[in-house]
Amino acid sequence: MQQGQQREGPAGRGSAQSARRPAQARGSTQARGSGGARGGATARPRAQSARPAPRRPARPVRRRPLRRGDSSRRLLVLLALTMVAFLAISSRLVVLQVLDAPSLDEAAAKQRLRTIELPAVRGRIFDRNGDDLALSAQARTVYAQPRLVVDRAGTARKLAPLLGVPAKTISARLAAKTPWTYLARKIPAQRGDAVTRLGLPGIGVLGDTMRRYPSGALASQVLGFVGDDGSGLAGVEQRYDQLLRGHAGQMLLEQDPGGRAIPQGQRSVEPGRPGNDLVLTIDQELQYVAERELARAVKQYQARAGSVVVMAPGSGEILAIANMPTFDPNRFGTSSDQARKNRAVTDVYEPGSTNKVITAAAALDAGVVKPASSITVPPELQLCRGVHAFHDSHAHGTEELAFSDVVARSSNIGTITVAKKLGARRLARAELNFGYGRRTGIDLPGESAGILTPANDWTCADLGTNAIGQGVAVTVVQMARVYAAVANGGLLVQPTLLRGTVDARGRYKAAERGAVKRVVSAATSRTLTGILEGVVREGGTGTKAALRDWSVAGKTGTAQVPNPAGRGYLPGAYVASFIGFAPAQHPQAVVAVVLDRPAKGAYGGVVAAPVFREVTGYALRRLRVPPNLSTSDDATTSSTPAPDGDVPRAPGARQPGRQ
Question: What's the pTM?
Answer without folding.
Answer: 0.78
